[in-house]
Amino acid sequence: MSAIYLRGMASKMMDDKKIVASIIIPTLNPDKKLVNCISCLEQQSEKNFEIIIVDNGSNYDFKQIECTYEDINIIKNEKNFGFSKAVNIGIKNSNGKYFVLLNDDAHPPENWLENLIKVAESDKKNGLVTSKLRFNKAPYLIQNTGNTNSKRFGVAISGDIGRTVPLSENGSEVLAPCGAALLIKKEFIDDVGFFDEDYFAYPSLYEGFGICLLEAMYCGLPIVSTDNGGQTDFLVDGKNALMVPVEDSEALAGQIKRLIDDESLRLQMSENNKKDIMKFYIENIAAKYERFFEIILRRGE
């Protein structure tokens, strides 16, 4: 069994109307930031929503949340399934017509959900609605307004990052929304399906050292990545990843399809990544540094 369901009731924060939105919060060892996030949700002007917390196998004690917010749905996965599967589990256990993804360290203002729904309902073509994200420690600076194309930093870069607030309140179309605070219409999921769980695609144009690739390896995901930058230090074509030339969209699509069609290849790459990631565990990295400094010290004697 992949998950333990601790709660299954609708939130007391709702009135008697039908649930409009299901707020899905994937989390891992959240600490007090999750409680702060829920406190912000209590203040929302839109009241007809439920909260579903999907815990990815952490050791966090949820007693405070269970006692304080006893009707919140809490789903505890037995291990870390990664973002995509956690979100899918939350969606499959939702009752709203809007699925709203939210990071556990977010502090949404009181009109946040109401405004997301207004934009979603303003046009039938608006299947996804992203948020204007600000840095918690520097709220006068934009962290993300949706991802845009960048030839300098890669295919997906946070839009308007570093710009000062306020920006124009007029919405605009973006290349890709940010999943940190994202509304998804139910019919959109019905049409295109759930988040992909079987692979991790990373079509970056430039890369120093891809931390998110290491996270994908930890979750046992086979990887499709562009062949450049720091990722070539730990990705080996045909072993734990399929590498494609930069800006070759046809090759990227072809290798993704190859992974989808070849289950044995996916499973083999998954096992390889679970093994390869161990060399980056903190105790192993620390041991390498110790050996390095020991060599330096001996040379100085």
What tags apply to this protein structure?
301 residues, Rossmann fold, 20% strand, 9 helices, seven-stranded mixed beta sheet, three-stranded parallel beta sheet
Outline of the structure:
This protein has 301 residues and is α/β, with parallel strands linked by helices. The protein contains nine helices and 14 strands. Strands 1-4-3-2-5-11-6 form a seven-stranded mixed beta sheet, sandwiched between helices. It has a three-stranded parallel beta sheet with strand order 12-13-14, with helices on both faces. A two-stranded antiparallel sheet has the order 7-8.
What this model shows, in words?
By secondary structure, this protein is of the alpha/beta class. Helix 2 (63-68) links the parallel strand 3 (49-55) and strand 4 (73-77). It has helices at residues 32-42, 63-68, 82-92, 112-122, 186-192, 211-218, 249-261, 263-276, 282-300, and strands at residues 3-5, 21-27, 49-55, 73-77, 98-102, 128-130, 133-134, 142-144, 147-150, 154-158, 181-185, 200-202, 223-226, 241-244. The strands form 4 sheets. A 7-stranded mixed β-sheet has the order 1-4-3-2-5-11-6, with helices on both faces. Mean pLDDT is 83; it is low at 5-16 and 151-157. The longest helix has 19 residues, at 282-300. It is globular, with a radius of gyration of 21 Å.
**Main sheet characteristics:** 7 strands, mixed
Helical residue percent? Answer: 25-40%
The assembly state of the depicted protein chains is single chain
Number of domain units: 2
- Low-pLDDT regions: 5-16, 151-157
Distance between the termini: 58 Å
Whole-number average pLDDT? Answer: 83
Q: What is the CATH homologous superfamily assignment of the largest domain? A: Spore Coat Polysaccharide Biosynthesis Protein SpsA, Chain A
Principal-axes geometry comes out as: globular
Please report which band the strand proportion falls in: under 5%, 5-15%, 15-25%, 25-35%, 35-45% or over 45%.
15-25%
